[in-house]
User: What shape does this take?
Amino acid sequence: MNAAQIHVEVAPELALFVPHARRSGATALAVDGVSTLGHVVESLGVPLTEVGTLLVDGRAVAVSHVPADGEAVAVRPVERPQRVPGAPLRFLLDVHLGTLARRLRLLGVDTAYESTDIGDPALAARSAAERRVMLSRDRGLLRRRELWAGAFVYSTSPDEQLRDVLARFAPELRPWTRCTACNGMLREATKDEVADQLEHGTRRSYDVFAQCSACGRAYWKGAHHEQLEAIVERALSEFAGDR
Assistant: This one.
């Protein structure tokens, strides 16, 4: 007896997750009549965090749908901007996304970051406990059921990573309000309050300071400010108008 088959078409935006043979048009796939469509899609390599609508013979179905012989399945990407209901929008990044974490914090986006590899179970548990969207390039991590929410980071370029996250989630941008080191909130500070962190030349040349209310780190418009300002201006010019 021939095994039951469905025909699956994966959207071009998700093609990088599947083998080359499945990247163009609908292809046949054997099903067992027991596994859910969500399981089938994941078995092809597509994290469910990246899936928006699942269509079976043209109608939307849940990931719990059990595909039957002869069905035509279309896998569509998430719609942008993606809304994450149930909690304020905030993120958790794994050890490989440190630059992206600092840039999101620079823009005032609530971003937790693990600077050491604490392992997938601990990351997923923190995502759930703090209701943070897990950002990662690790597909295995994004498949963990205990995640609050997650998203695959498609690029290895920090510039493109930032654009992708801002375009996908449309977070509120409040530049210069968070500590890029620890994610704490910044407050205005006097020179005397941060004097122990300043070199002699800095004390002589600068008068305007901020300090992290959590870790105490001091900030001023130093040598790298123009580079940071450029990142902020690009983000605001491209994304702030849509919020």
Remarks:
- The radius of gyration is 22 Å.
- DSSP finds seven helices and twelve strands in the chain.
- Residues 5-77 form a domain with the Ubiquitin-like (UB roll) fold (CATH 3.10.20.30).
- The chain has two domains: 5-77, 91-242.
